[in-house]
Amino acid sequence: MKKLKIILASLLLLTFMGCDKEDAPINTVYDNINGQTGVGFSVQNRSVIVPEEGITVTVSVQVTTISTSARTFNVSVDPSSTGNSQDYNLGSVTIPAGSYEGSFTVTFGNFDNLPELVNQTLVVNLDLPDGTAVVGSETVTFTYLKKIICNDVMLVINGDTFGSETTFEITDASGTVVQSGGPFTDISGGASYSFNFNLPDGCYTFTIFDSFGDGLFDGSVTGNYALTCSLITHASGSGNFGSSETTDFCINQ
Hints:
mainly beta; five-stranded mixed beta sheet
């Protein structure tokens, strides 16, 4: 019996020592001061519209440890990027002192040389020193597009049978009517009407009216409308919107 007690005591001691050895590295990893540092972007993708004056985009970066001094980490452009290197300027990943969160900035410009209506990509990788883990995303992809400058607006109205009930107007920021149209002709099954006009830069209000109060719907035919400029849709709608439907929009703002 005495030998059995000695054996059991030895086993318990070994088990206790074994637990200590397993816990030590875990405590070290999750030590927010002396543990392993993990760094990563908080997002994987950002969409950017590049205006004529350029734009600076900020992505937040997270880190698992804290430091009494500011830290910086390098980044690199991935070969899979499709954009021109002249389109952007990269900053570095900066973590302020005493913080678990930092930032990374990219400035997009080169407006005149950006292709029209073509999405470009900039893929940025974190270049982390040895011993640094990834927390979050190691890569962030910016999809950027040149802002569309468009003043030539098209309005298409596909009416219902009772075109005589339909009118529209566009007013500027001061409330002045700058474009209007209708009423149209009653045609069984409806008809399509299109208008083209140039609007100076600024903000406007588009309103479509139906005097009967059932919008572009006559009980069998469902009409629709769209106010567009290149790929931009400023206003659209269909069916029974009642007596009127109003949409605010801006040109090149």
